[in-house]
Design goal:
The chain contains 6 helices and no strands. It has 129 residues and is mainly alpha-helical. Keywords: Cell projection, Cytoplasm, Cytoskeleton, Membrane, Transmembrane, Transmembrane helix. This is Family with sequence similarity 183 member A. Its main location: other.
């Protein structure tokens, strides 16, 4: 059988010349594009002057309001979740506090009974082990 052909050793000078030529091609074809715009997150009110149309200024102010102040009803399904963000009525909260403090009423639910039993079981198995 014939011996496989051995690779020539790497010529560092030749590799460097290829690298320089590649970089020069990239630099030749680069284009600097410069486009300046105002960022939408910046406050544009400092640009406006007193000579502006009052309706235009009012429209800018209305556009910057949160959705609950702009519209009477939610515009998207995502807005429906937090649209009515008023706190709970104090009457229910005060009744709950009055009953729990005065009569020491323990409001238990099915999930709390389950977790109470689960914690007791966990503590018992840890203490035995």
């Amino acid at each position: 059988m014939a011996n496989p052909k051995e690779k020539d050793p790497v010529d560092i000078v030749h590799q460097n010349a290829i690298h320089v030529e590649t970089i020069m091609k990239e630099l030749r074809h680069q284009k600097l594009t410069l486009s300046l715009t105002l960022s939408p997150s910046r406050n544009v009110m400092h640009i406006l002057t007193d000579q502006e149309d009052p309706a235009f200024v009012q429209a800018i102010h209305k556009a910057r309001l949160e959705p609950t102040k702009k519209y009477s009803h939610p515009q998207t399904e995502a807005q429906e979740i937090g649209w009515l963000s008023s706190p709970l009525e104090r009457s229910y909260l005060s009744i709950y506090l009055y009953l729990s403090i005065t009569f020491s009423v323990a409001f238990t639910f099915e999930i709390t009974k389950y977790m109470d039993a689960a914690w007791r079981l966990k503590e018992q198995t840890q203490n035995l082990g």
